[in-house]
Amino acid sequence: MLKKIGVGILIVVIFVMTLWFTSNNPGIVEIDLAFGTVSPSIAVAFAVMFVIGWAFGLLCTSVFILRLINERRQLRRSLRNAESEVSSLRNLPLTDAD
Per DSSP, what are the bridge partners of residue 65? Predict the structure, then answer.
């Protein structure tokens, strides 16, 4: 319950800060791309860069998570093999050393 309230307050604060930023920066910025030039408002340019950064962060995080999942799969396989070997060694008859 407290977490939901905190997230709600955070969303409202971000929304208010976005409105404040937009009202204080009404100018237009010119962005020169390799294939052309665009002229969005500063707020739109910041929003697009935020989304691109978020997507890049999500991509990097997903690559890291996929590596962890693969490592976990390999460790489980290794554990199963080790448990199988221990089980088969326990079932061997004991021999007396003469």
Answer: none
